[in-house]
Design a protein that fits this description.
Rossmann fold; AB_hydrolase_fold; 583 residues; single chain; 2 domains; alpha/beta; 20 helices; two-stranded antiparallel ribbon; 13-stranded mixed sheet
């Protein structure tokens, strides 16, 4: 999802500490390779490990090819690998910040591994694989926000030691180009295929680092969470799958409006024109784009991002239905059981997940309708009217007065949250349970960005998008302090994620995890064939309503949280609505 401002603000408060490092080595006897890494604060790190070949030149936009180190190679894995081409410099209030991306290259298909110090090759530890978000525009394993040190140390201290892996994959036009020539050569969705290739590398190589390739959990946030979902629906569920569990934070298979449409075709055409590659022949355009220097093509991408920044709240490059990796609309794949059914999931959203995508200047119903129409341009008049009727403005009046913002802003933000995050999470939990696997739902109602928001006079945005990431990485103190309540959320959220990776159950010791976290749907609820979920169990994380709650459609709210959510989601998750938002 497209974050236009706050990604820069987050980065300004994230600085990696300087700690002494000592060398460490891993020998892979199967492939006769030695990896030289380093011990940092009790965590052994291996960075810049190549899993795919250079994607520049004739390989630009194409699906990745596996990289193989020559037999007997000693791999220097002590420095961060290159990040894929993206906009690295963003500005907030005149201050330029860098989010941990310093070296850009199309030779960027590399990964990072972190494990507890002293891990033996036969440790057989569960593996957690992080897929970063960033609107499919930016992202890197090198972001300080994704430093795995505290997560790995915390998991080990809670008796659920794990191996952490994250991969760099291509973003924006480099990973998600779309025109007839790209489709004809079957090069669509290369960014997703990068992720898949990294997962295959893990299957073949992680045992040498002490990991268990049969206990792999994918987790990701925003478009990273959507990436987890799309790996689950990959190839319509046909063939083998290189992971066993998935955690989708503010993302799911059907969370990207436009996947079955032509928006990225327009984006590719526009970027090509900005880069000087104009032609009515798509093959000519593709050849021209491949011949451009990386910096020139990236400049055109950034120019297009700047043009659309004030016009769109949606992403401008993202996956598309290709008839292969994504054989049909993701919502259809879920509804019809065309996904890998032996995968247990956690899916959830943040209480105010839609706020940073919504203009605080919305001040009347006309504004809100225009905002929703711009976000989902293919909704017909009847559907738009019904959607608006499910969010009466009076529902937001009291909260608006309390946080000193227009209720129309809260109305628009609630619609955006539910369409993109909350309702797709309930949908994926429903269908995973329907086909026999375990699913868990959560709503996060805590954030450590509250002080940052206060400094920006934006406290009304609440528990914003990305609030979950610092908690999950067990590193929620952003340099401005952390409360006791936030500390509890950090400990238990990171602990539940690690325990889920180790056992498939996020509940354990109440001091370390969210105890008694029940599955999202019972057998009766899971058996519902339509899209209208009647009842769902949701774990509320943090806030005054923290604990396990049951959403009940017939009694309008069950235990009192989100009283209209299931009614709203029954409409948003309907076949007709999904078709109109093209996901």
């Amino acid at each position: 999802m497209k974050v236009l401002i706050w990604s820069s603000l987050f980065a300004a408060f994230l600085a990696a500490p300087v700690t002494a490092q000592s060398p460490v080595a891993v020998h892979d006897s199967v492939h006769n390779l030695t990896f030289l890494g380093y011990n940092y604060s009790g965590v052994e790190n291996f960075q810049g490990i190549r899993y795919g070949r250079d994607t520049s030149g004739s390989n630009r936009f194409r699906h990745p090819q596996a990289f193989t180190y020559p037999n007997g190679t000693t791999v220097q894995a002590t420095a961060a690998g290159a990040s894929c081409p993206q906009n690295t410099l963003e500005s907030l209030a005149g201050i330029t910040v860098n989010e941990g991306v310093y070296n850009l290259s199309e030779d960027c298909l590399n990964l990072r591994i972190a494990r507890p110090a002293g891990t033996k090759q036969n440790a057989n530890l569960p593996v957690m694989v992080w897929i970063y978000g960033g609107s499919d525009e930016t992202g890197s394993t090198n972001y300080t926000l994704y430093d795995p040190t505290a997560l790995v140390l915390g998991a080990a201290a809670k008796d659920t030691p794990l191996i952490f892996v994250s991969m760099n994959y291509r973003v924006n036009i480099f990973g998600f180009a779309n025109n007839p020539a790209v489709r004809a050569e079957k090069s669509l969705n290369s960014g997703l295929l990068d992720q898949r290739l990294a997962l295959e590398w893990i299957q073949s190589n992680i045992a040498a680092f002490g990991g268990n390739p049969k206990e792999v959990t994918l987790f990701g946030e925003s478009d990273g969470g959507t990436g987890v979902g799309l790996q689950m629906t990959a190839y319509g569920g046909q063939g083998s799958v290189p992971f066993q569990r998935g955690i989708m934070e503010s993302g799911s298979p059907a969370a990207d409006p436009g996947v079955s449409g032509n928006f990225t075709l327009t984006s590719t055409t526009t970027v090509a024109q900005l880069a000087g590659c104009s032609s009515t022949n798509s093959t000519v355009v593709l050849d021209c784009l491949r011949q451009l220097p990386m910096t020139q093509l990236l400049k055109a991408v950034i120019q297009y991002e700047n043009i659309t920044a004030s016009e769109l709240s949606q992403d401008i490059f993202f996956p598309v239905v290709d008839g292969d990796f994504i054989p049909a609309a993701p919502s259809t794949l879920l509804r019809t059981g065309q996904f890998h059914k032996n995968i247990s999931v956690i899916a959830g959203w943040n209480y105010n997940d839609g706020s940073i995508f919504t203009s605080p200047t919305l001040n009347n119903s006309v504004d809100v309708c225009a905002f929703v129409n711009a976000s989902y341009p293919h909704l017909n008049t009847t559907t738009l009217g019904t959607l608006m009727s499910l969010y009466p403005i009076n529902d937001f009046a009291a909260t608006a007065a309390a946080v000193n913002i227009s209720p129309y802003f809260l109305q628009g933000a609630a619609i955006w949250r539910d369409v993109n995050f909350a309702c797709p999470a309930i949908d994926v939990a429903h269908h995973v349970a329907q086909y026999g696997s375990q699913s868990y739902l959560y709503e996060l109602n805590a954030t450590t960005f509250d002080t940052v928001l206060q400094l920006a006079n934006a406290s009304f945005e609440g528990v914003i998008h990305v609030s979950d990431v610092p908690f999950v990485f067990n590193d929620a103190n952003l340099g401005l302090g952390i409360t006791a309540a936030q500390q509890v959320v950090q400990t238990r959220m990171s602990g539940s994620w690690a325990r889920f990776a180790a056992t498939g159950d996020p509940s354990g010791n109440a001091n370390n995890t969210f105890a008694d976290w029940t599955q999202a749907l019972n057998k009766t609820g899971a058996a519902v064939k339509g899209q209208a979920v009647q009842q769902a169990s949701v774990r509320v994380i943090g806030g005054p309503s923290a604990g396990q709650h049951v959403l009940n459609k017939t009694t309008q709210g069950g235990s009192g949280i989100e009283p209209q959510l299931l009614t709203r989601c029954a409409f948003i998750n309907s076949v007709d609505f999904y078709q109109q938002i093209q996901t």
